[in-house]
Every structure is written in structure tokens, then in C-alpha cells.
TrEMBL record:
One of its GO terms (molecular function) is quercetin 7-O-glucosyltransferase activity. This is UDP-glucuronosyl/UDP-glucosyltransferase. SUPFAM superfamilies: UDP-Glycosyltransferase/glycogen phosphorylase. Keywords: Glycosyltransferase, Transferase. It comes from the Eukaryota. Belongs to the UDP-glycosyltransferase family.
Length: 164
């Protein structure tokens, strides 16, 4: 029997990022592919709530799991910069542990990681674990085009490293 494809989708914890990745996950699951969506622990309850309220719109073969994001260690939970630093410090190791655990079971083994472009560490972890990966950019073509040109703008002296 052929092994079922299992895609692990890694989201960035913001509404404009989770929603498009959930829609992509649904399209993938509609083709009979097993999908596990990974969210940050701090937004997991909200994601489950929205997912449950729109159950008819989403494939029931999508599983949503969370990994710790470091938010429980923050003094000021509303400080976005501290949240992002904590997320980058905690989530890579948690994702690696999740993939290792899933890959220890033939039925759960990850075939591919699809991650939001902002969570670059997910691609490093996938590569380290020997799993193929694909980047998802939930924004406009213009925004990725501009983002990819920033190094050239700095090199040409149009922008400095502070964006001025």
C-alpha cells in the first residue's frame, strides 16, 4: 500500500496569515491529502473557534495542532516585539520536536512542510529533518517583489539598513 501524503502547514500567528493558509490547507485536503496545521499556542483557541464555526467550509481531514510560542514567558503580553523574539527563540525547537515525533510513526510521517514566508526557521528545520518544504506568501505579488528588492536598494545606497 502506498504511504499517504502528509503535509505539515506552519502558520504565522496573525489573522492575515492564518486565514489564507487555512484556505490552502482546505484545497490540499480536498484532494485526499492529509494536512496538519501548526499554530502558535497563543492563538490556538481562536483558530479552533473560527475553524469550528466554519466547519462546513473546511475539510474535516484537516487537523490543527499547536506548539508553544514563548508567550507564557512574557512580562508584557501586548508587546509585539517581545512576542516575536520569544516566538523565534521557542518555536523552532518545538517544531523540530513535533516533526521528529510525527516522523517516528509511518502513518504520521511528514511528506512536505508548507510554511508562511515569515517563519523562515520552519524551512531550516524542514531541511535539517530531511523534509521537503515550500514557501507560502499570503500577501500581494507587489509586496514580495518589493521585499526581494530590499538588498539591492541597500546595496545601491537608495536605502540604509534602517530603511531610511
Amino acid at each position: 500500500m502506498d504511504k499517504q501524503i502528509h503535509v505539515l502547514v506552519v502558520t504565522y500567528p496573525a489573522q492575515g496569515h492564518v486565514g489564507p493558509l487555512m484556505k490552502l490547507s482546505n484545497l490540499i485536503a480536498d484532494r485526499g491529502i492529509k494536512v496538519t496545521v501548526v499554530t502558535a499556542e497563543s492563538i490556538h483557541a481562536r483558530v479552533l473557534s473560527v475553524f469550528s464555526s466554519k466547519q462546513g467550509e473546511f475539510n474535516s481531514h484537516i487537523r490543527i495542532v499547536s506548539i508553544p510560542d514563548g508567550s507564557d514567558q512574557l512580562k508584557d503580553k501586548k508587546d509585539r516585539n517581545e512576542f516575536i523574539k520569544g516566538m523565534w527563540r521557542v518555536m523552532p525547537g518545538q517544531l523540530e520536536e513535533l516533526i521528529r515525533k510525527m516522523n517516528s510513526s509511518e502513518e504520521e510521517k511528514i511528506s512536505c512542510v508548507i510554511a508562511d514566508a515569515i517563519v523562515g526557521w520552519a524551512f531550516e528545520i524542514a531541511e535539517k529533518m530531511g523534509v521537503k518544504s515550500a514557501m507560502f506568501w499570503p500577501s500581494t505579488l507587489e509586496s514580495i517583489s518589493l521585499s526581494l528588492q530590499i538588498p539591492k536598494l541597500i546595496e545601491d545606497g537608495i536605502l540604509d539598513h534602517d530603511g531610511n
